[in-house]
Write a structure and sequence with these properties.
Elements (H helix, E strand, L loop, with lengths): L2 E6 L8 H16 L4 E6 L11 H10 L6 H18 L3 E7 L7 H10 L6 E4 L2 E4 L5 E7 L17 H10 L4 E7 L7 H17 L2
Parallel strand pairs: 1-2, 1-3, 3-6, 6-7
Antiparallel strand pairs: 4-5
Helix pairs in contact: 1-6, 2-3
Length: 206
């Protein structure tokens, strides 16, 4: 299996820095993997169901070993379809801008749907374990500011730290990234160009 799901978490289209970097990665990956399947989806254009009402009741019925009503069964079927679609890929590419020091709400909603016990997360006597081991992910991050290691503002970055954590939680620990930071600051064009070059380099060995 050699299938890549490219998820865009930005609604800005051609003006998105994260999309520009992720596009470079995906195009290079396709070039070195002729015949491989790439599916592109924009989370702001997907019909993601809200995770509330019958859906959350269905989740807790599963956790407590109870059955579903007809409405809950139908609602949970929507959740299962999204999870099964995600799991059908073995590689992922994400374009993720920073919004208010974290990720866009549509990406958070998507993972609220994906992260479910028995589907992407298991539990044993040692605690939780991810069920999607062996898969790979590339992430193109972008941000208006810069949050360097060792600087007090490093702790403001809930974008990359959260996404690495949640991917690892479901078992995807093989994650590489390219970052376009400081996009509202002087020197942004050079940093963006460097990130695009890095993305293409990473794609050749992905």
């Amino acid at each position: 299996m050699n299938r890549l799901l490219y998820l865009k978490a930005s609604p800005r289209g051609s003006r998105s820095h994260s999309v520009a970097v992720a596009d470079a990665f995906v195009e290079q990956w396709k070039a070195v993997n002729p015949g491989a399947e790439v599916v592109v989806r924009n989370l702001f254009e997907m019909d993601l169901p809200p995770f509330d009402g019958d859906r959350i009741m269905a989740k807790y019925n599963i956790l407590h070993g109870r059955g579903h009503s007809l409405d809950e069964k139908q609602a949970w079927g929507e959740i299962e379809a999204i999870i099964n679609d995600f799991k059908s890929f073995d590689r992922y590419a994400f374009a993720v801008p920073m919004w208010n020091f974290s990720v866009p709400y549509r990406l958070k909603q998507y993972f609220d749907i994906l992260v479910q016990p028995g589907y992407t997360v298991g539990m044993n006597e040692k605690g939780y374990f991810g069920m999607l081991e062996g898969k790979k992910a590339f992430v193109a991050y972008s941000s208006g500011g810069i949050y360097p290691e060792g600087n007090p503002v490093e702790t403001w970055d809930y974008q990359s730290t959260w996404l690495r954590m949640i991917l690892g939680f479901i078992g995807i620990s093989d994650v590489v990234s390219a970052t376009t930071n400081g996009m509202l600051m002087e020197g942004r064009d050079a940093r963006r160009s460097d990130a695009i070059v890095r993305a293409a380099e990473l794609a050749r060995g992905f």
